[in-house]
Amino acid sequence: MPADTGPRVRRPARLLGEWLAVGTVLSILVTGLILAGGLRRFDYLLYDLVATARPRAPPDAIVIIGIDEASLARIGPWPWPRQVHADAIARLAAARPRAIGYDVLFTEAGADDAGLDAALRASPVPVVLPLQFMVPGRDGNAHDDIVPVVGRGAGSAARIGQSTIAPDEDGVVRTLTMAVDGTRRWPQVAALLTGAGVAEPFQPRPITAPLRRVDERLVGFRGPPGSFRTLSFAALRDGAIPDDLLRDRIVMIGATAAGLGDQFSTPTAGRTGVMAGVEIQASLAADLLEGRRLRRAGTGAAIALALAVLWLGMAGLLRLRPAAAAIGGALLVAAALLATALLFAATGLWVAPAGALVGVLLAQPFWAWRRLAAVNDWMLAELAELGGGVVPRAGRSIAADPVTRTTQLLAATIDRVDELREIADAAIRGLPDPTLLVARDGSIAATNTAAAALFGAAADFAAVDRAFAGLPPFGAATLADAATPWRGEHRAADGSIRDIRSTPWRGPDGAALGWIVRFADISALRRAEAAREEALQLLTHDMRAPQASILALLDRNPELPPALAQRLRHLATRTIALADGYLQLARAEAGDHVMVEVDLAAIATEAIDELWPQSQARGLRIDGIGLDDEALLVGNHQLLLRAIVNMIGNAVKFAPAGSTVSCRLAPEGDNWRLDIIDSGPGIAADMQARLFGRFRVGPQADGVGLGLAFVRSVATGHGGSIGVTSAPGAGATFTLRVPRASAPAPG
Predict the structure, then answer these.
(1) Is the pLDDT of residue 695 over 90?
(2) Among 217-231, 514-528, 727-741, which range has the highest average pLDDT?
(3) Which of 194, 367, 410, 734 is the 20 to 30 Å CA partner of 617?
(4) In angstroms, rounded to a whole number, what is the distance separating the alpha carbons of residues 688 and 723?
(5) Using an 8 Å Cβ cutoff, are 104 and 82 in contact?
(6) How far apart are alpha carbons 37 and 634 in whole angstroms?
(7) What's the pLDDT at 502?
């Protein structure tokens, strides 16, 4: 077999290149489709679905007077005499509406124009009339603006606006323009009726220039035809409409009869398929009254949305399994459409989502094709590399056909892997302790007989999963954790206690593939430790109980000679201290403690407070230096507190009355350094070497000699150290060093 020259990274590198290529090609494709308008009809469909999902109720402030079939039958065929319209304006003006929109073209002279002019001059409310654009215009003009022949005189209530309705490419009306710029600006009829303006400044254009549409708005349709309050023109003419229905409202008059031709397809047209132009104008007026500004975002926003969603989908395809990626793609499409709908509902801005949806939908098959091609090429390359060391089994000839030869190499490689797996399984099965081979995704790759006996059937790993629950790194493992040895403890259902140790399991390239996990039965050891703890409890109890009885007898017999009573009390108290110190030391040396993040500064402050009565009794002052800031480490609060109390207590015991004991905390590299400084008699050099042993006391000490041994045990258990610097007559400095929380954990 050829020598291994390093990690095999061709497959990931090839896949990443294919991924970038697919994403780039799709980005260019989607951008091109958006710029070319190839997705416009799809966008229209999506907009119609969103815009009509929950239409708003039409406002009560708008009333439509429809020129309907009943009116044509009652008054006569179209066009009507101008006097009919004059009478209608007079009737409406008497009801005092807010404004009147008369969506009828009066661009040609009629016999009764004088009467209509008079009605317009007499109206106390504005009457908005539409003009007509002729494109192309006469005499080489780009357009002619044909204004109404009535309402031109001074004092007339007439206002001139445009009511142009231009469907989209699919023949459906979705937008109206707020103004049309030619030689002058012609505002939208709905804008004049509601008093809405156009922010964009007017720029005069020569008559030879085409008309310019300004501030195009999406129309917020309020439902199917007839959603607005609509009254018949015939009822108006007959005086059958109460003034209260018209007063202070915007009244819009227009054709609603199908035969008059002013009908357009809209997203909410419903079964009829069309909606009257006057109702479309009323829908825009309703938007303006409510302050809604519905508009389409530019092409740049659509491209940005499409590319963002596309690359999110591509990231999912790269990271997820095919089934999960397909589900994720569907969810991403739904999320993009939902986000677009929510943005439109909240701000009135419609960002066309078709490009985003098409990009994600195309990414699935494109990526599946390129990924399969990359994996196939990688497999062929790996088989070619293994070809020198893997041959078909004896008796099988090597085929000349490339496809058959590749198949034979693959089969031979699988046979070789099976043989190696059998060897590994046999080695694991022969181990005396329950042992598992755990892949880095947490699955069990192999087990042995002892593990099967411990956890049940070898094929059922539910018990193993429960054993791993909450045990890092098997719970929420990251790939990096596989390279880190780990040790833990687990109590099985039968009451036995297992010491769990893991060792990284590495592949040929040195990368960690998982763990080899051993479950050693330490039940007997734990029982021995429990017995030891019980013995300690009994021992200390047997030591404490008689001494406590002696102290009680001394309190009840004051007739004893004072010197004798004091001597007995001292010996009993010293024996109790010996029992307590021995118990604390034994527990500290046991090493089985809960370690959490604690604040060493707070613990030192607590120790100073605990020793305040003793220091006050001797007139001492204890200074805490550097204790205002946090000093975090991983440790056991109670053990550290006892250790620091012992250190400061020694200083209080030996310091001269009225002097100062300093407790100074500061960082030192990866450690916290806690110095306890006193000005006592000092310690000789030969005594310093034995100071932290058991039952070691100084020549002037009155103790049992376990306090500093306890401090040393706590320091060692926290991965730290304890030391002393002193000289006879120069006081002493005891220094505790423990690792900071950010430093490497103790081994």
Answers:
(1) no
(2) 217-231
(3) 734
(4) 9
(5) no
(6) 63
(7) 76
CA 740 to CA 720: how far, in whole Å? 10
User: Helices marked H in 62-216 — which ranges?
Assistant: 69-75, 82-94, 113-122, 189-194
330-355 confidence digits (pLDDT tens)? 899 999 999 999 999 999 999 999 99
Q: DSSP code of 483?
A: G
For residue 470, count CB atoms less than 10 angstroms from its CB and return exposed for 0-12, middle for 13-18, buried for 19 or more. exposed
Q: How much is the mean pLDDT over the chain? A: 80
Beta-carbon-side half-sphere exposure of residue 96 (alpha carbons within 13 Å): 3
**Tokens 């829908």 label which residue?**
283
Q: In angstroms, how far is CA 167 from the centroid of its own chain?
A: 42
| Residues near 308 by beta carbon (within 8 Å), at least 6 away in sequence | 356
List CB contacts of 275: < 8 A, sequence separation 6 or more. Answer: 173, 221, 224, 225, 263, 264, 265, 266, 268, 269
Helices 354-386 and 322-347 pack at an angle, to 10 degrees, of 160
Q: What whole-number distance in Å separates Cα of residue 660 and Cα of residue 461?
A: 64
Whether residue 473 is preceded by a cis peptide bond, meaning omega within 30 degrees of 0, is: yes
d(CA 68, CA 485): 87
- Neighbouring C-beta atoms of residue 565, cutoff 10 Å: 16
Q: How far is CA 527 from each of CA 373, 456, 522, rounded to the nearest angstrom?
A: 60, 25, 9
**pLDDT (average), residues 597-620:** 90
Structure tokens at 261: 């031709």
Tokens 């909240």, residue located? 346
Beta strands in 34-77 (DSSP E): 62-67
The more confident residue out of 525 and 702 is: 525
pTM, two decimal places: 0.53
Token pair in block for residue 120: 């317009």
In contact, 341 and 50? CB cutoff 8 Å: yes
**Distant-in-sequence, close-in-space partners of 100: CB < 8 Å, separation ≥ 6:** 89, 92, 93, 123, 125, 126, 127, 128, 250, 251, 252, 253
pLDDT value for 59:
93
Q: How far apart are CA 203 and CA 117, in angstroms?
A: 32
What pLDDT does residue 368 have? 83
Element containing residue 660 per DSSP (H, E): strand 660-668
Q: What does DSSP say about strands 229-232 and 127-130: parallel, antiparallel, or unpaired?
A: unpaired
**Orientation of helix 113-122 relative to helix 82-94, angle to 10°:** 10
Query: How much of the chain, in percent, has pLDDT values that exceed 70?
Result: 78
Contact in structure between 723 and 679 (CB atoms under 8 Å): no
Instruction: Say how far apart CA 709 and CA 715 lie, in whole Å.
Output: 10
Q: Residue 302's pLDDT band (boundaries 50, 70, 90)?
A: very high
- The identity of residue 234, as a single letter, is A
Handedness of CA 445, 450, 454, 458 (dihedral sign): positive
d(CA 384, CA 601): 64
Which stretches within 623-706 are classed as H helix?
Answer: 637-654, 685-688
For residue 461, the 8-state DSSP code is: -
Q: What are 227's two structure tokens?
A: 């959603």
pLDDT (average), residues 416-427: 77
The residue ranking higher by pLDDT, 10 or 737, is 737
Task: Show the tokens assigned to 190.
Answer: 């709905």
Contacts of 200 (CB under 8 A, 6+ apart): 179, 214, 215
Greatest mean pLDDT range, 407-421, 444-458, 553-567, 636-650: 636-650
| Spatial distance between the Cα atoms of 332 and 325, rounded to a whole number of angstroms | 10
pLDDT of residue 205: 78
**CA 644/CA 310 separation, integer angstroms:** 61
**502, 485 Cβ separation under 8 angstroms:** yes
β-strands 144-146, 185-187: how paired?
Answer: unpaired
